[in-house]
Amino acid sequence: MMSIKPRKQRKEMFNAPLHKKRKWIAAHLQENLLLKYDKRALPVVKGDTVRVMRGSFKGHEDKIVKVNVKKRSIEIEGITMSKADGNKIAKPLHPSNVIITKLNLTDKWRRKKLESGLSEDTKKEIEAEAKEQIKIAEEEKKIKEEDAKAQEEEEKTIKEEIEEPKEIAKPEKKEEEKEQKDKVEKKPVTKPKAKKEVPKKKTKTVKKSAKTKQYEKKSTKKTPVKTTYKKEENK
Fold it and tell me: How many domains in the chain?
């Protein structure tokens, strides 16, 4: 940074591109590493073992789990903080509060940068250490894959045990239904009894005489209603 003014330094720090921010996430090397690689500080990488030098977790030493380039912070294994709801999350730390005790040499690009300007003996030592680290990393991957497969198999067996009784119960119901259908089919079909036809009674027809016919005609005729009017008295 060219300027001495803090406002311009902060502005450049926050508005800088990621390739510059990545270089700024650096930490000091321990004395034995400083003499070996002839370098004072290096950018921190996931997998580096680190010791905390300041704060409440002072003296804690473990591997780096995550490097956040945008926020310029790192997360170390075993360092956590509790939230208000009780859940625990990783606590971010600034790389300036940390010192590197062991480097992760699995990346070939990092090895080339370290080997530049060093003697051949130190280069051979770096390559031998890198091979050991690669072997350990491969073994850890295999163990993780085996654990993941074992967990999947356990989950499958648990699901099968839960689903087995349901599958057994279904064929039993089907067999019971078949037996009931067979019983219904085997039962003899009884036809309803035919009703006996009751003979209808014959009604006698009575002949009417001429007098009765005349009498019926007269009775049907309407009798005229006589209306009477009262005379009004002269006042």
Answer: 2
> Does 24 share its domain with 121?
no
Q: What is the pLDDT of residue 163?
A: 74
My answer on whether 70 and 147 are in the same domain is no
What's the pLDDT tens digit per position in 65-90?
999 999 999 999 999 999 999 999 99
Please give the DSSP secondary-structure letter assigned to residue 58.
T
Rounded CA gap, 36 and 108, in Å?
A: 18
Radius of gyration of the chain (CA): 54
Exposure string of 70-107, with b = 16+ CB inside 10 Å and e = fewer, is eebbbbbeebeeeeeeeeeebeebebeebbbebbbbee
d(CA 115, CA 122): 8
Task: Determine the Cα–Cα distance for residues 173 and 179; give it in Å rounded to an integer.
Answer: 10
What is the extent of the structural domain holding 12?
1-104
180 alpha carbon, distance to own chain's centre: 45
In whole angstroms, how far apart are CA 178 and each of 173, 183, 185? Answer: 9, 9, 11
Query: Residues of the chain whose pLDDT is less than 70?
Result: 1, 164-174, 183-209, 211, 213, 215-235
pLDDT in tens, 16-55: 999 999 999 999 999 999 999 999 999 999 999 999 999 9
Q: How far apart are CA 125 and CA 105, in angstroms?
A: 11
> How far is 47 from 76, CA to CA, in rounded Å?
10
Give which of 58, 62, 74 is closest to 21, Cα–Cα.
74
